[in-house]
Amino acid sequence: MTAPINLVTTRPPWSQTFSSLKIRNYRIFASANIVAVIAVWMQRVAQDWMVLELSGSVTAVGITVFMQFVPSLLLMPLGGILADRYSKRLILMMSQGAAGLLAALMAVLALTGHLEVWHIYLIAFVLGLVVVADQPARQVFVNELVGPTQLRNAISLNSSIFQLGGMVGPAVSGVLIMAVGGGWAFAANALACLITVVSLMMIRSSELLTMPPVKRAKGQLMEGVRYALGKPTIFWPAIMAAVFAVFGLSLAVLMAAYANDVFKVGAGGYGLLNTLVALGALCGALASTRIAKLRLRGVMTAAGSYGVLLIIASAAPNMFTFGAVMVVAGFASLLFLTSANQLVQMSTNVSIRGRVMSLYVMVLLGGQAMGGPLMGALAEHWGVQWAMVVAGGMPLLAAVVIGLVLAQRGQLTLQMNLRSARRPVYIVSR
């Protein structure tokens, strides 16, 4: 049995946009998360740029992405089992402590001038192992903080926080790299991890809506797989997310090439491009709080729109035009990611949600592990413009194909209204 998807007949009022922040535990979690996400973005931009500087290769940037996300591709379901069996808060405290130590190590190597590309590869891989434990617990912990009635709002706000960090972090990191070097970005992330651990200690256990832990038993992983395969509102968003992750979420690799090779704007320009994407994504995440109903068609439309925008960006003649398209692309990207996450979580029974979300996160992060080297290699051998066409074309194709499959199965239908100039042909859910 699965709890029904939380649908409302009208759009929530603007006054309810931040309604989950009324809950004390979530306010503490969200406040620390803002600091942490800004620092994570700072480290991400510094890491990518330092790899590019040390190696001179876009492919090397892609390999770094691969090293960081390949543990998710191989081991993420184990993280889901941990999340269902043990305290989510304890898992997060341990994972954030480990991430802080890794960031501190990277800072020491960079600031002492001993950092090499293989160091970044190795630390990225170990950080990927930490993410395996962190992400499923983080996804499910939100429900313990706010409960089912505020879950959709909290997911949207978490996405908003991530993109707010994406606006501030890359810009700050770009300035740091040019002024004093990227090592300080890693030091900032180490401090932010410590702040996160302290904030988790401040959360009141008595106010958490905890579920009884799932007892150890055989076949728990396959139980999660069968559950996900059997529900269209989980299966199809996960398939779309896989294609989206491999091709569309490698945008950072391609933007590094655009900043370095096409527009020649350096680290500051790369940070600006990341900030512009995050600006649009923040708007997309906030817009998701206004969606009255969660539907497969909305998820697929957002993914297809993102693909179209990347294809348009490939033909951008200058930095100004490219940046403008990136804002809109960021909006479409987060509208898809947030809506898909909400649909999957709201379709899943709480007792099995850790395992289901671990599979979903595995698809997202594992896809990036494969997509980073692939898109980096395409950018080097075909040119970054053609790589951008592929990055947008594949999600667009997947959205169209999934839409046709759902239509054939009767879950979506095609309707026509030739009197309407705005929407002469459109898809509706049954």
Notes on the structure:
The chain is mostly helical and 430 residues long. It has one domain: MFS general substrate transporter like domains (Growth Hormone, Chain: A). The protein contains 14 helices and two strands, in the order ααααααααααααααββ. The chain has helices at 24-55, 58-85, 88-111, 117-146, 151-179, 183-202, 220-229, 232-247, 251-262, 266-288, 296-314, 319-346, 353-382, 384-408, and strands at 412-416, 425-429. It has a two-stranded antiparallel ribbon with strand order 1-2. Helix 1 runs antiparallel to helix 6, helix 3 (88-111) packs antiparallel against helix 4 (117-146) and helix 5 packs antiparallel against helix 10 (266-288). It is globular and about 55 Å long. Mean pLDDT is 82; it is low at 1-9, 412-418 and 423-427. It is found in: Cell membrane. Residues 20-410 form the Major facilitator superfamily (MFS) profile domain.
